[in-house]
Amino acid sequence: xxxxxxxxxxxxxxxxxxxxxxxxxxxxxxxxxxxxxxxxxxxxxxxxxxxxxxxxxxxxxxxxxxxxxxxxxxxxxxxxxxxxxxxxxxxxxxxxxxxxxxxxxxxxxxxxxxxxxxxxxxxxxxxxxxxxxxxxxxxxxxxxxxxxxxxxxxxxxxxxxxxxxxxxxxxxxxxxxxxxxxxxxxxxxxxxxxxxxxxxxxxxxxxxxxxxxxxxxxxxxxxxxxxxxxxxxxxxxxxxxxxxxxxxxxxxxxxxxxxxxxxxxxxxxxxxxxxxxxxxxxxxxxxxxxxxxxxxxxxxxxxxxxxxxxxxxxxxxxxxxxxxxxxxxxxxxxxxxxxxxxxxxxxxxxxxxxxxxxxxxxxxxxxxxxxxxxxxxxxxxxxx
Length: 384
Known about the structure:
- With about 375 residues, the protein is an alpha/beta fold.
- It has helices at about 15-35, 65-75, 90-105, 115-125, 145-150, 170-180, 190-195, 200-210, 215-235, 265-285, 300-325, 335, 345-360; strands spanning about 1-5, 45-50, 80-85, 105-110, 130-135, 160-170, 240-245, 250-260, 325-330, 365, 375-380.
- It has two domains: about 1-285, Rossmann fold, CATH 3.40.50; about 295-380, Arc Repressor Mutant, subunit A (Orthogonal Bundle), CATH 1.10.10.
- Helix content is about 50%, strand content about 15%.
- Helix 1 runs antiparallel to helix 10, helix 6 crosses helix 9 (about 215-235) and helix 11 packs across helix 13.
- The radius of gyration is 21 Å and the shape is globular.
């Protein structure tokens, strides 16, 4: 199953990095804790296939160092980090960053070259333990055949866990669709996107989605969703597609595609992207041209109003869940709980909605659970 978020996660003046890194930092930490506590030797493998230099010139951590930091802080898992970078100069800087963390006891290694050339050895090294792949290229991504082979092969079972977070370039899709629409059949972007998508099926999807419009936004969205659906279906995974834009009303720069086999992964990712979006807004603040801030107010006001609406939607969702199922654990109904607000609602939103539902008697909490997602709910005395 694949779903697209409703939150319109935004991207402006490098804000894609603010959002992307916020979600990476939050989710990887949670992932390592979730799967590392029960994995063989508490080992967890995390891979950044397009790691760059690992750290920005101003000293700010990039994705590679964020993963290394998470590994260094992990208390319930031994995180084994593999970072891959094709550019030699960037790799040399990456290796220096890795060396710093190796000196601190982090199990990490850097490889120079194309990630798909190292993929088999990376997967082999992670045999029997959870594996998280972060793939964030500029332009065309990993060939579909290579990624599907890994996810649908020996790592197809639910355990040990295998998850993927990847960048599916909307800019690249729009460029390829533009060439296709103009009849430039020999344009280099067409076979490149064929490889990423695992065939030329995307061409018909893109043209049909565009229709008679001059904009290619619908094409990029349709192809990204179809790509996520196909990969999720082929590999037996849940898929989430997150559009990332420069500004409200602008076309996505790319879509983040998340794949997991666990409802826990779906739930924790929902919480991570909602909190990452909040962090993005707080970092950038309002812009006079953004529709999100078309009324008087500050970021806190916008976030408060959004959360009020999200809380009301989750409240409605919880009532529907107990009307359909007499007794259920929240995480087992993750899609229903977050329906309509995936990317906006976080754990705090769900907790607040559940409190309201228990107060009005429509929902009862049968078991509390350590986390809100573990709570077991049923019909309340007003829901019978």
